[in-house]
Design brief:
It contains four helices and no strands. The longest helix has 47 residues. By secondary structure, it is mainly alpha-helical.
């Protein structure tokens, strides 16, 4: 039996059948593996962006009540806090991404005044009928 398997294996290799099977299998499996890799990378990026946004929200909320520093300084401090926290955890995130997340967090925070869209701005001379 062992002798038969050896001859069969040798025939598969020398005739090229094993190579043809390997090539067809690779042609079928490679696109499947590439799609799985893309999906995994996308999921990881989404989770990392969620972490960046969460850290930015926390950093901005911690600076809301601090009246000793200006808005620009608060922005820079929040950006530094988020960047440092990510670097400490071993994440490599572009500074621009961190700045965008901090800016979005500021726009959601109490630091940004809300504007009533139904109120018309007053410009020029205002005449009150009395």
């Amino acid at each position: 039996m062992w002798n038969f398997l050896m001859h069969l294996g040798n025939w598969l290799v020398t005739s090229g059948v094993a190579g043809a099977v390997a090539v067809f299998a690779w042609k079928y499996l490679k696109p499947v593996m590439v799609e799985k890799q893309k999906h995994a990378k996308t999921v990881q990026e989404k989770e990392l962006l969620g972490l960046v946004n969460s850290l930015a929200d926390n950093a901005v909320n911690s600076l809301v009540s601090n009246t000793a520093i200006t808005g620009h300084d608060k922005f820079m401090a929040a950006t530094k806090m988020v960047g440092t926290a990510l670097a400490d955890k071993g994440f490599d995130v572009q500074r621009q991404t961190v700045e965008h997340a901090v800016q979005a967090a500021y726009e959601k925070s109490d630091l940004t005044p809300t504007v009533d869209p139904t109120v018309q701005p007053q410009t020029g001379v205002v005449v009150h009928n009395g």
